[in-house]
Amino acid sequence: MPEARQNLSQSEIGFVKAGIGGFHTAVKQLAGKACNGVPIRQWGFPWEPLKEAYFGKEGGGIREQETGKEPVYVLFTCNQWKEYSSMRIVGVTTWPEVLYAMMASRIKEGQMLYRSENPGESWEQFRRDYAEGNVMPESLTYGYVEEYTDKYFSDPELTAEFPNILPLWESLEKERTFEALKPLRLQERCMVFSIAELRSEAGYQMVYLPGWGTEETLRQSAEYREYTAQDDVLDIHVDVGTYKIGRGDEVLADEQQTALIQRYFDRIPKLHEADLCASDCYTLYFDRFAEDETEVAEP
Question: By the number of CB atoms within 10 A of the CB, which of 44, 101, 129, 173 ranks highest?
């Protein structure tokens, strides 16, 4: 079969570094303000794999992959001569165990044969090979497995096959984001929202908040309640940044608008003006067994 010419979208976590101040979010970097480490989800096509993918078993037709790219396994039905014109896709997966299960289902039903012309013997052969970790997809009859490799923008064969793919995709993605953000009307008004970064022994949490992101708003958020439910006592350090995006009169973003901003946060600076207009930090001492929570501001 011909080499796959497809891109399977996946997301990866990236960090945008900006000087000694540490890692900066896209908007904070644009505004020239420092903050602590913030993970940014990069949507759409990845530039490179986040990490090397290891799939498969020792032995058999599918072996451990060390290419750094996630393999994609496609199971076809076909005639006994494996003619291309006879092939029909019946299953797609990135996990070999799922592939083996799909193969087993077809073999058990007698729709595919495996190392034998007899359906019953085919099933027994497959069971033995699976138990020994030696499944051989190439031994299928009336079935065929093709292994594809996911593509990335840096792949020479991808850019050779699809000239100008990167600028065209960036243009399409920009148009899609612009259309999605239309309800915010950022060309005629300036939306105000906040991001609170929580740090404690319970870990890190980033919470998007409507408007100026007051402490009261933070405490009322579902993310804060979930975060404080992790331990009996939490010494929480809070960094809050308030941002303005768009042009015109200021409007405090509501929860629905803030959720939309959060979804497209890393793409907004490419389309609309963005600025950090205020910041604050304080410490919350939270005790769920106490009647009242207390706050002690940092000096």
Answer: 129
